[in-house]
Amino acid sequence: MSTDSATPRIVLVHGGFVDGSGWQGVHTLLRNDGFDVAVVQNPTLSLAGDVAATRQIIDAQDGPVVLVGHSYGGVVVTEAGTHAGVTALVYIAAFAPDKGESVNSLIADPPPGAPVPPILAPVDGFLFLDRARFHASFAADLPAEQAAFMADSQVPWGVDALGGAVTEPAWRIKPSWYLVASDDRMIPPPAQRAMAERAGSTVTETPGSHAVYVSNPAAVAAVIARAAAR
């Protein structure tokens, strides 16, 4: 771990349907490169709650923070990243909303021919992905057994989290990096590229499913390290 208070700390924020354990490969690589790394465990009940959980972890860091979000975690870091301790944002196959936008508004008009994520109808205010289609849609480049475990251990995603709108997007005042997963079947790659361009992000693209942070931790860690090096 770094003991230099000027060396950025890395804070990793997961998305919907999963928890922070998916960051283990990225965490290991970054720690091996000398970074302090913290992983947020979002309740994924509401955007406000997830932003509060993320800011709690940012507050605990002794030094500047590179804030990283995957998928819905991109909405969280967009809102939480205005924190004074955050020096850079990294989006990993993530939503990067503008002011007033939410996951709901960003997925309302998918590109023609884009695959439709197999999100089941809400039950008691929570969403799940169809377990039978989880592998193909979320984690096609992972072994079937690993994808099956992820499908069976899904975290309920609150509909209030999807409706949470960003108030002040951090990417308008902080530099950002974006990793596009070119085989993503949850957030269409064209949508990822458009959001990255709008945010003025430094863009890297790699083959990979929506679970690229699990399947290719080296590519993800490399982008984060470049953001930290700035």
UniProtKB/TrEMBL annotation:
Keyword Hydrolase among record annotations: yes
Stretches of the chain forming a coiled coil according to its record: none
Sequence ranges assigned to domain AB hydrolase-1 in this UniProt record: 10-223
Entry keyword set: Hydrolase
UniProt-listed SUPFAM superfamilies: alpha/beta-Hydrolases (SSF53474)
One GO MF term attached to the UniProt entry: hydrolase activity
UniProt organism field: Nonomuraea rosea
Name this protein carries in UniProt: Alpha/beta hydrolase
Keyword Hydrolase: yes
